[in-house]
Amino acid sequence: xxxxxxxxxxxxxxxxxxxxxxxxxxxxxxxxxxxxxxxxxxxxxxxxxxxxxxxxxxxxxxxxxxxxxxxxxxxxxxxxxxxxxxxxxxxxxxxxxxxxxxxxxxxxxxxxxxxxxxxxxxxxxxxxxxxxxxxxxxxxxxxxxxxxxxxxxxxxxxxxxxxxxxxxxxxxxxxxxxxxxxxxxxxxxxxxxxxxxxxxxxxxxxxxxxxxxxxxxxxxxxxxxxxxxxxxxxxxxxxxxxxxxxxxxxxxxx
Length: 254
Hints:
The protein has 254 residues and is an alpha/beta fold.
């Protein structure tokens, strides 16, 4: 039995545009429905949602056979959380609030087995098909994709050093937290924030490092893709549901 190939990792490495969707509803049914919509990837969030490990396992299961690859965001750059998601079968992780190269290296070590890291060894987990993938320990690193999220001005100042860390597959810019850090809470469209985002993606392009971002506003998403972002979440399940529900009731109230 083979390790599943990580199509998302290969696509962003080749700078192929990957259109994604953010999922924070915690609903298995919603994730399953979205998984067949034609997106390339779906972010399964645990940082700002009530979803925990069993919920994420269920959400990853319903994405098997869908067009969308699962990208899981742990709540923090914590080796225990990372280990548990990897053992559960997550192949792509987005680590929040990475501030510098030391924290990026910490994330890399968390996904790698000794002697190159500190990931604990389980001989029977969902990731290795409960021990049936005989070459799991030798080949697993080839199929793991590690993305780090830069959310402050200080982190963006360290972008080149972070991107240079061996094992970092992509840089993700968090626009909302970046806006807050730059003094524009709730206004990622502010010119200072947009300038910082443009500078970040330009750096990534020069370095040949795939860059990603969340852009639930269509005009923003189109602009970011034009700027050179490789993987962009163009919406979020909660936002899509809220918008559709509000618009529907408004039409009938009228």
